[in-house]
Request: fold
Amino acid sequence: MVEEARAHLFIKGRVQGVFYRSFTRDLAHSFGLKGWARNLRDGRVEVVFEGEKGNIDMAVKKCFIGPPGSKVIDIEIKWDTFTGDQEGFSIRY
Reply:
């Protein structure tokens, strides 16, 4: 049985102005995940991934690497119950 989950990430480092949100959208598409990403005023990027837990785990590992030009210092992850309320993956402004 596939375990579905929801992960709420707060990504700290040089993650704005380096296409990090687009990077997370591409990860979501690659791993069949849904959710969203947005920049926060404090310089972090906030991301929600929803889908198969194993796929979320793989996407989170890639988030630590990030796109060229980024430098991830830390990722805070809060695991939540899968809701199934996400349609695709969007970049929020």
User: Anything to note?
Assistant: The chain has one domain: 4-84. The mean pLDDT is 98.
